[in-house]
Every structure is written in C-alpha cells, then in structure tokens.
C-alpha cells in the first residue's frame, strides 16, 4: 500500500494520469511507433552490410537521409502552418515511415536504401508538426516531465528487443529484418491514423490555419528572411542551434556505426545487439523515474555538464574496449544511458523554451534546416573514417562532445536565466 501511494504520488506518474489533450494522445500512441522502431533500428546498418553495402555506402545513405531532412526542413514550417498540425503529421508520417519500411523490407542493394533514406528524410515535416501537437497546448512548466515521460516510453519499448534477437538468431539477419519491417509498417501506420482521429488542432495551429488560408506555400515562406534574422539575432536561439547540431551529428554517427564496430571489430554476435538497448533502457528508465524529478531544481547547466562528462568517459571506454569484451561493452552502455538521462530531456525542453511560441513551426523548421545542412557531410565522413578504422567515428564523436562541454560551461549566465514559466 505504501509503495502504491508513493508510485501514484510520483511526479511522472501524476503527470501521466492528469495530463490532457494532445500531449496525452501523443504519449499514449507513441509505443505503436517506438516498439517497432527499437526492434529494427539496432540492426539497420548490419542489415545493410549483410546486403553487401560498404561502410562508405552506409555512410552515404546516412548523408542522403540528412540531405533529404535538410531540404524538407525548409518547407516544414510552412507546410505545418498551411495544412495544420494534424493533417501534416498523418500525411508525412505515412510518406516518411510507412513507405520506407516497405522499401527496407524488400531491399536488394544500395539504391533501395538510398530511395528509402530520401523518403525517410521527409520525417522532418511530421517531426515539426508532431512536436507542435505535443508542446503547443502544454504547460511549459511541465515540459521537462513530458519529455521525461516520452523518453521513458522509448526505454520501456525496448523490452521487446529480444524478439528481434531471437528472430535473427533463428532466421539470420536478412529474413528476420524483412519480417520486422513489414510489422513496423503496419504498427506505425496504425499509430498515425489513431493520432489523426483523436488528436485536436492546437490553438496556435488554428490561428496559423486562418492566417495562411488562401496563401501558397511559397508566399508563406516569403517571410523566411525575417525568421532567419530573428534566429541569428537571438543568442539564446543560437545556443539552441549549436546544441541541436552537435547532438544531431553525434547521434547520426553513433546510430549508424555502433553496430558495425561492435560486430565487425569487437566480434560480438549480431543477435546480441538487441540486448544493448535493453540495458540502456533499464538504466534510463530507472534514472528518469527515480532521480529526474529531484534534479529539476538544478536547472539546465550543471546536470548537462555532468552528463557530458559521463558521455566522454563512456566513449573513451568504448574506444579502448578489447575484442570480445562483452562485460566492458555493458559498462559502456550503462554509462551512456546515465549520460543520456542527464542531458537529453534538458536539451529537448531547452530548445522548445527558447523558441518564440507564435512562430514555433517556422522557426523550428528553419533551425532544423540549418542543423541538418551542417550535419550532411558527417555521414559520409564517418563512413570514410570507419573504412580506415571503426574506432575513428567514435573519436570524432568525442571531439564534438568536448566542444559541447566547453560551450555549456561558458554559457553559465545564459542557461541560468532560462525559466520554466507558463
């Protein structure tokens, strides 16, 4: 009974029970996307390698994905305002996830993956519109909790990863992945339909629909020059831009080359890749549930510096890991998870807080266009480095995170000034 009272009274549980409107619909439908995503995502680069793509081709696919996202980001704000948050989300979620899942399921060579990557890059529009659905009608004081819950959902979804491991162990990587991609196509599409049916257009979204009625996409975009000026005239938005760019680059590199490094260089069996996300999720979920509410009073800067320090320590450990050292990889994954728990909910909420609410869609769209444009070369660069030595991409990540640590450390006053006001 005591445990039950403590559980119900926990800030995250209380938020999940009491939250209303779009944030509730978004959070409760998210497992239909996260579960299939975490079934296939640890193995995607290994699947490409099994279909005889080289490290450079895998890196090029990553760059195509980033290029597509960068181009799409230019239009994402205008499309989100013109179509509305709900309609933009369902249309472009379908184009950027349903169709790529089908292509991945039947892929034969590099070109299948290249086309899928180009379509998958359209996700930048629903990433923008979906984020607007999540945050625009939410209390800003609750954003860290909402993003913590979102990350909790991600972590809990990973408990299904052993299904992928069993399938790969019994069927081998290629047939198992083809089945997983078909399942992902069905599950994700169901999520898109439910969110469209039961979600509501946000207040800001309805305002923008009225303001853009009768206007073409190009006319809506005609004010982008002023938006760019607004972004680069704001030290706070420049800071958010730098933070987002660095995490975009490092996340892309780690996501595409961790599996190749672990299986190709450290000689860990392919099916064991499924268990790393589980370890990571247990750590992240425990941290978010037990410690995250206690860290809210410390703001942004100090928790992010602690998290970045742990990230750097984990990367050094990964780079120095000897062959077949599964126990050391488990320690690396646990450290990486702790670092993630310190950094990412704050990075996500900080970015949303620093963006002007009335122009959220257009500002966020153009910020992401800049972020992704800067990220494009690093997919191919990481593939080039990986062809030489599969540790090199992780050395590159380390250098970026050192840069991030310095930037956060030097922005003490600016980060301490950020308030979680309504």
Overview of the structural elements:
There is one protein chain. The protein has 422 residues and is mostly helical. Helices cover 81% and strands 0% of the residues. The protein is globular. The two termini are 35 Å apart.
Q: What is the CATH topology assignment?
A: Growth Hormone, Chain: A
Number of domains: 1
Helix content: over 70%
Contiguous uncertain segments of 5+ residues? none
Q: Would you report the number of β strands? A: 0
CATH architecture: Up-down Bundle
Helix and strand string, N-terminal first?
HHHHHHHHHHHHHHHHHHHHHHH
Radius of gyration: 21 Å
Mind telling me the CATH class? Mainly Alpha
Secondary structure category:
mainly alpha
Silhouette: globular
CATH superfamily: MFS general substrate transporter like domains
**End-to-end distance:** 35 Å
Strand proportion, as a percent range, falls in under 5%
Note the total helix count.
Answer: 23
Mean pLDDT: 87
Short description:
The chain is mostly helical and 422 residues long.
Tags for this entry?
mainly alpha, 422 residues, Growth Hormone, Chain: A, 0% strand, globular
Give the SSE layout.
Blueprint: H1 2-8, H2 11-18, H3 21-29, H4 31-40, H5 44-50, H6 55-83, H7 85-106, H8 110-120, H9 124-135, H10 143-157, H11 161-171, H12 173-198, H13 203-212, H14 217-221, H15 224-232, H16 235-265, H17 275-290, H18 292-295, H19 301-319, H20 326-354, H21 360-388, H22 392-410, H23 412-416
Helix pairs in contact: 2-10, 3-9, 4-11, 4-12, 5-16, 6-7, 6-8, 6-9, 6-13, 6-21, 7-8, 7-9, 7-12, 9-21, 10-17, 10-20, 11-12, 15-21, 16-20, 16-21, 16-22, 17-20, 19-20, 19-22
